[in-house]
Amino acid sequence: MTDLTDYTLAQLKQLQARISKEVTKREIDKKAALLKRLRKLAREEGMELEELLGTEAKVTAQARSSKATKKSQTSTAKNAPLPVKYRNPNNLEQGWSGRGRKPAWFDAWMNNGGSLDALENAAQSKGRKKPITASPASAAPANDNTAALEASSPDVTSEATPNQ
Question: Which residue intervals are annotated with compositional bias (Polar residues) in the record (predicted)?
């Protein structure tokens, strides 16, 4: 090995760049050679490599760069589901983050006079056993009169919710 203490900083940086390029070139060549061997082996068995992989495997002059790897890692993080901001009070399993297309239950709730606060409160208290049926119009204490309850609360589900 060469004694690096004799090199100037500029020479060391130039050497580092050359080494980096050579390492990348050798990695690409190694991958291309491996792909070639795998294709040959597949052909000997009467198949194509693309059939085995289920994709189009191409031998290119350049293999995946570190940019492509970083891009796939960041896109995975970006695709993580957002936390639920609004929840359907009549079916707490249905939620919406507030982004993207509005779900049908959200539009139905709003068209029937429901408030965003009720949906936000439903999202915060998902652990409740009973569905939230109160809307701003029915702040009176609940009684056994289900017709009054149904009239004051927007009905956003197609099937009736049982009273518990």
Answer: 154-164
pTM for the predicted model, two decimal places = 0.33
Q: At residue 27, what are phi and psi to the nearest 5 degrees? A: -65, -45
pLDDT tens digit string along 4-63?
888 899 999 999 999 999 999 999 999 999 999 999 998 998 888 888 887 654 444 334
Asked if residue 33 belongs to a domain, the reply is yes
Measured distance CA(81)–CA(123) in Å, rounded = 15
Total structural domains within the chain: 2
Q: Strand, helix or coil at 86?
A: strand
Instruction: Compute the distance between CA of residue 64 and CA of residue 85 in angstroms, rounded to an integer.
Output: 39
